[in-house]
Amino acid sequence: MKRMNSLRIGVVAAALSALTGTASADVVSDQPAAILIWPDVISALGEFAAPVDTVFQITNTSLEPVLMHCFHENANYHCSNTGEVCLFAEQCCEGSDGCGTCDPGWLETDFWIRLTPRQPLGWVASEGMGRDEVPLTGGIGSTGIGGASNAGTNIPPVAEQPYNGTLKCITVNEDGSPSDRNVVKGESTRIAVHQFDSLGTVAKHNAIGIRAIEGAVNDDNELVLGGGGAEYEGCPEQLIVNHMFDGVVDPIIGAAAVAEARASGIPFDASTGTVLSRLTMVPCTQDLLRQVPGSAVAQFLVYNEFEQRFSTSRTVECKFEKILSLIDTTDPERSIFSAGVSGTVVGQSRIRAVGSGLVGVLTEVRYIETMDGVISGGLTSQAKIPRRVPAWHYLGVANGEQADVNIHQQGDRAESDIITIP
Fold it and tell me: What would the pLDDT profile of 274-289 be if each residue is shown by its tens digit?
């Protein structure tokens, strides 16, 4: 059975890939670049959900030191009356002051990273890395190649808990002006501890890299991505996401894993290993100087295995994060991203941006349902997905696993995207 499913998925993926042609975008995830974007930064160590944190790694691939100007971009919602982080409006009705509203927000915090030649550097989102914690402080016996050091590096922890945001780092010259050096690459590893037990799961993806055009980068604070007067290569014309449809019986976990769980004394239904996918996207255009997030309209064309086509669209502001089957409806059983509606196991979504360009990452979450249709750990099944919890709550589902996927990209946008830095 497993062999048949693997063959089926492989053939379908090849067929769907043929629909997209061979053109590729300039944005990269496997080459050194001048701008790095981590679209999905989650740190949740409090009472909101099972513990989740993000570990960053950034590497200088060159034989010369490099300075980076970085920006934590906080996309949390906050109560209008208390300023506390909120997930839904009812959380803003505590106390005797009446109810407030749960409002979206966006706030950036900048910092600097100095890397020595060929140096990798890693830190945890919830902890950061202070000046006295860097590997090479610049003191006697604490320098790298040619006397280089990490002096000037001061990475703050994320601003609050829970934290839902993004990270962007840009190579700069010593005076802080943008540099055309394509010498850095990055990764992130998200660690989630399962609810109600001590087990955990990890997911890793590469940072998205935007390469500078050699000799084109000037010293102003507007970074032009693609289009006329480009200083950096452009964001993609469309994102291409190969995915399973939400709620499909998992062809990988299969009956064996469920049987093992049942042997431990938990009454699982052997047919209900299930898959959900979580899509995260951020705009390429952002004004970090004036604290104005970018926005776009994402237009979705969704194909099933028979090349039947569905469509929908959503606005993307600051950071977009959704379980696929909640993108187009509040009832996942009626979603075009649901296995019950699409009628097939796997499919492909092509996302075209209007307004700003978009980059993103996909997280696939696999879990096992109990016989009453409830995921062990308190969250409900795909047919009963809670509407008022953020998609990152699924990262810590008990008896579940997560995997990140870098999204395929195609074409170059005709319009420029602009990143404005302080």
Answer: 788 999 999 999 999 9
Cβ–Cβ under 8 Å, residues 34 and 181 = yes
> What is the distance between the alpha carbons of residues 341 and 351, in angstroms, rounded to a whole number?
19
Look at the block and give the residue holding tokens 């990273």. 113
* Other C-beta atoms lying within 10 Å of the C-beta of residue 129: 21
Same domain, 43 and 186: yes
Secondary structure (DSSP) of 320-361: EEEEGGGSS-S-GGG-TTBHHHH-SSEEEEEEEEEES-EEEE
Q: How many angstroms separate the Cα of 320 from the Cα of each of 203, 242, 269, 344?
A: 19, 18, 34, 26
CATH code of the domain containing 102 = 2.60.290.11
Whole-structure pTM value: 0.86
Three-state DSSP class for 89?
helix
Domain end marker among 200, 234, 268: 234
Pairing of strands 200-206, 286-287: unpaired
Does 4 reside within a domain?
Answer: no
pLDDT over threshold 70, residue 271: no
Contact 207, 360 (CB under 8 A): no
Same domain, 301 and 322: yes
Whether the CB-CB separation of 106 and 144 falls below 8 Å is answered with no
**Domain, as residue range, for 228:** 31-234
